[in-house]
Write a structure and sequence with these properties.
The protein is built from 14 helices and 19 strands. By secondary structure, it is α/β, with parallel strands linked by helices. The chain has three domains: 9-113, Response regulator (Rossmann fold, 3-Layer(aba) Sandwich), CATH 3.40.50.2300; 225-379, Heat Shock Protein 90 (2-Layer Sandwich); 394-519, 3-Layer(aba) Sandwich (Rossmann fold), CATH 3.40.50.2300. Strands 8, 9, 10, 11, 12, 13 and 14 form a seven-stranded mixed sheet that branches. The chain has a five-stranded parallel sheet with strand order 4-2-5-6-7, sandwiched between helices. Helix 13 links the parallel strand 18 and strand 19 (490-493). The longest helix has 68 residues, at 118-185. It starts with 8 loop residues before the first strand and ends with a helix.
Length: 520
């Protein structure tokens, strides 16, 4: 409702007007309605563009100015981020021109000969602008809350995985430690050495895979939507699922060969599976059976994922609320009620559906329908390259972990490289100053005390501009990208193999040689 505002209400308006008399007319009209114009008058497009950076409440613009029109001003207005009303107040403008101006972004147009609509139009547009700002703030707050909710649930799931993961790691450590002790106790037994070292290698691979799965699962942001092989995701997650379920829950996988791919994100799909599995485990406190089944849905173009347990089931009065955030029937400290809400949010966000069929005493069946996609191209099996030998090149190894540094140096020396070693960036800088261009390559850890490997490489670049650098790290690739690792930088991910280490060092040295040949 329009009305007279309290006397002296300030109105910060940017006035685009080349007539001082017309500007005074507007100011007096607003004053009679109780508004004190705290504005600034500009007459050129350059001044208008410069003034837009200030916090105005609205813009009042004449249509015809000396060298341009309001349409030119609107073109400038739209290039800058803001949400303030733009009103045209003109004395010579037809209805068709006014409509054209509104199509170009003006909120309204008022004739100078009849200013009775000016104040109501201003008040209306100020209210609507305030409403838009409030809506945006609410949407931003909602998105932040959704992100925090998803991350909190993911952290809860990881925390609850800790017991199963610790069990698997303890098994791995038992294998490594005891086979190492056996080999050291009888080093002359060649058969025992071969068997023990083989088992140690397999156990290390198990530990590396488990670590990588945890890093991937805890990644904060999902990847872009893409075609994901559902059966492969289930198979790759099988080890973590068994760890989460525990020894008293039997896991059965029924993966139909023609299931195909779904449109989604592998990491979030793993989160869906893990949440459903952990929910099922809690419903089977005395053990039971969990069946994960995949296949084509009856309706064309969709893929079905079914997770069925033999647990206590869900009461009829609870069933309608099962996907609501923070709704839980579990005892305090056993869950936040976020798991199934997250499943629902992920699945429906992809355009899918999730439903549950359950009753007390007969378990629960969760059925997820996901949009199908063309199967991604299968990856060719990776052949493991033989370890590549060096030709006496000098490698500067920078690593703060003594055991890893000793291992890397031993591997490189055994494969034909001369090695300089540094425990930190400070020692590496001293060695670079002493040996200069005789250093052919630097192999450095990224995360080190005082100065990172990235900062060290930047520090040495002016001194040794042609020296290639290979980085090492045990962190996930996504975390390193946030730390400044460019896509073209060479990264050796821990744990690495001798073949992977020597191949990357050789590749970096050969690339430098080719670059030097072309620069001659």
């Amino acid at each position: 409702m329009s009305g007279v505002a309290p006397a002296g209400v300030a109105l910060r308006a940017l006035l685009l007007e080349d007539s001082a008399d017309d500007a005074l007319l507007l100011e007096r009209h607003l004053a009679r309605s109780g508004y004190r114009l705290e504005g600034r008058r500009v007459e050129t497009l350059e001044d208008f563009r410069a003034a837009l950076v200030e916090p105005w409440e609205l813009v009042l613009a004449d249509y015809h100015l000396t060298t341009f029109t309001a349409l030119d001003a609107l073109a400038v207005f739209r290039t800058q981020p803001h949400d303030i009303p733009f009103l045209i107040v003109s004395g010579a403008m037809g209805e068709d021109v006014g409509v054209t101006a509104m199509l170009h972004g003006a909120q309204d147009y008022i004739f100078k000969g009849n200013l009775s609509r000016l104040v109501p139009a201003i008040e209306r547009e100020l209210r609507e602008a305030a409403g838009r700002r409030q809506n945006r703030a609410a949407q931003e707050a909602l998105h932040r809350a959704e992100d925090q909710l998803a991350q909190a649930q993911k952290m809860e799931a990881i925390g609850r995985l800790a017991g199963g993961v610790a069990h698997d790691f303890n098994n791995v450590l038992s294998i490594i430690g005891n086979y190492a002790a056996l080999c050291l106790a009888d080093p002359q037994d060649g058969a025992l050495l071969r068997m023990g070292l083989g088992e140690i290698g397999k156990a290390a691979s198990r530990a590396a895979k488990l670590t990588q799965q945890l890093l991937t699962f805890s990644r904060r942001h999902p990847a872009p939507i893409a075609a994901v092989d559902l059966n492969r995701v289930v198979r790759d997650l099988e080890g973590m699922l068994r760890s989460a379920l525990g020894a008293d829950v039997e896991l059965v996988l029924l993966l139909a060969p023609g299931t195909g791919a779904v449109r989604g994100d592998a990491v979030q799909l793993e989160q869906v599976l893990m949440n459903l599995a952990v929910n099922a485990r809690d419903a089977m406190p005395h053990g039971g059976r969990l069946v994960i089944e995949t296949g084509r849905a009856r309706d064309e173009g969709r893929v079905a994922l079914t997770v069925a347990d033999t647990g206590v089931g869900v009461a009829p009065d609870v069933l309608p609320h099962i996907f609501e955030p923070f709704f839980t029937t579990k005892a305090e400290g056993r869950g936040t009620g976020l798991g199934l809400a997250t499943v629902y949010g992920i699945v429906t966000g992809w355009g899918g559906e999730v439903s549950v069929d359950s009753a007390p005493g007969r378990g629960a069946v969760f059925r997820v329908l996901l949009p199908g996609a063309s199967m991604p191209a299968s990856e060719a099996p990776r052949s493991i390259p033989a370890a590549v030998r060096g030709g006496g090149e000098r490698v500067l190894v920078v690593e703060d972990d003594d055991a890893v540094r000793t291992l890397v140096c031993e591997l490189l020396q055994r494969h034909g490289y001369a090695v300089l070693t540094a425990r930190n960036a400070g020692e590496a800088i001293l060695l670079a100053e002493q040996h200069g261009r005789s250093i052919d390559l630097m192999l450095t850890d990224i995360v080190m005390p005082h100065m990172s490997g990235l900062a060290l490489a930047a520090r040495l670049a002016p001194m040794l501009p042609e020296m290639p650098v290979v980085y090492m790290s045990g962190y996930a690739d996504a975390q390193l990208q946030g730390g400044g690792l460019a896509p073209d930088m060479r990264l050796l991910t821990k744990p690495f193999t001798v073949e992977g280490l020597t191949a990357m060092v050789r590749e970096a040295l050969d690339a430098r040689a080719v670059s030097a040949e072309y620069s001659v």
